[in-house]
Amino acid sequence: MARLPVYLRALNSMSDAGTTTCSSLELATAAGVNSAKLRKDLSHLGSYGTRGVGYDVAYLRYQISREIGLTQDWPVVVVGIGNLGHALANYSGFSSRGFRTVALLDADESRHGEVVAGLEIRPFEDLKQVVADHGVGIGVIATPAIAAQAVADRMVECGIRSVLNFAPTILSVPEGVDVRRVDLSSELQILAYHEQRKNSTLSTPVEDVS
Amino acid sequence: MARLPVYLRALNSMSDAGTTTCSSLELATAAGVNSAKLRKDLSHLGSYGTRGVGYDVAYLRYQISREIGLTQDWPVVVVGIGNLGHALANYSGFSSRGFRTVALLDADESRHGEVVAGLEIRPFEDLKQVVADHGVGIGVIATPAIAAQAVADRMVECGIRSVLNFAPTILSVPEGVDVRRVDLSSELQILAYHEQRKNSTLSTPVEDVS
DNA sequence: CTGTATTTGTTCCCGAGTTCACAAACTCTT
DNA sequence: AAGAGTTTGTGAACTCGGGAACAAATACAG
Predict the structure, then answer these.
(1) Long-range contacts: A157-163, Cβ < 8 Å, 24+?
(2) I need a labelling partner for A73 at 20 to 30 A (CA). Which of A52, A168, B70, B109 fits?
(3) Which parts of chain A register pLDDT below 50?
(4) Nucleotides on strand C with an atom closer than 7 A to protein CB?
(5) pTM of the predicted structure, to 2 decimals
């Protein structure tokens, strides 16, 4: 489920705040969802709550971490070290919590050897070697849109089966490969769409009446 | 609809490639959706296709742009100019297509006056002034998680009703304010979840039999 | 030990969104 | 001009996820 990471984050906050136990309603409001939905989600992982009491924060946190797979180590390779790739390499949320950036690759020769976030930028051709050396299963694409499909194809060839794509393109990949797309300008466009509708419904009541 | 930006992107690609007309099937496969769904989505905007022919790329592109609101200008303010905020300020996908970054704000005094992407970093206290001067309706939060809620509260006070949140927190905002969350590590966790399930189902057929 | 209050796990129901399938409308060839 | 071939728009069935409500289970007070 896509909501598990949100629950986990809420649990971490509670744990930091010293909370040792919590009800489904508390956790649900912290995560911004309905309590029934939360309970149903958690019941899919097993019965980790106690009726009349609630959930043990630490225990539930461990169980969700295990379910997501955060108890193991996930090596990650980032391709395309432009502004965004640079930010991703430095992003602490990646390095913490089970994810470990093991290599930064870029096609631009002039940037090879440059050190970002403690890692040397290497040529894109090294991908196969990197995958073999570190057992990488997750690839992050932060290249321009025009290069993204070629990078994805090469990643699949090298055995990567999970791709996080920041380039504004729809990638076509074979069956069995997962792609998640994060499109910054799409998000803005969706906001603009709603913003526009807010304004029009507020400012044109006359048209609705006519 | 959240799919409109994807359609628009596919149409732009076609337009760049010189395609002047396209069928619903072509556009649907380019966007990665079912053709019936695409037709139904487009029919909500009006009847812009011709039966037996398809859609006129340029015309449909304009209509979708208008529907999303990209024909008008959307001033955007970015708060939190760390690694990510830096990347966002430089991201060309923001500046093009109707969005215009009008101000960069940061609470860290030592960074005030620094120029990023042609804009000077200003103190967070300037938010109200910025909103008043430029009529900003969209705010982007790229601060650490701990500061995000306070920034959001202040944004709402200043009249911003659309927020794009990159901080790993659930923001609570009043009715009528839209928040879209982009959580980079959540995306990775979801990939890890699926990756783990791929591996376990491949390597433990024995357990399934027993 | 018994009854009451609390909270989880689960069942049922409903509505939104998706897909199928087909009629209406248009083009092109003969 | 007429029929064959396309392609859109949409009505109807279906699927899936969400929310309300309730029973089972636990804690606690008297």
Answers:
(1) A157/A128, A158/A127, A158/A128, A158/A131, A159/A131, A160/A77, A160/A131, A160/A136, A161/A137, A161/B195, A161/B198, A162/A137, A162/A138, A162/B191, A162/B192, A162/B194, A162/B195, A163/A138, A163/A139, A163/B191
(2) A168
(3) 204-210
(4) 5-11, 18-21, 24-27
(5) 0.91
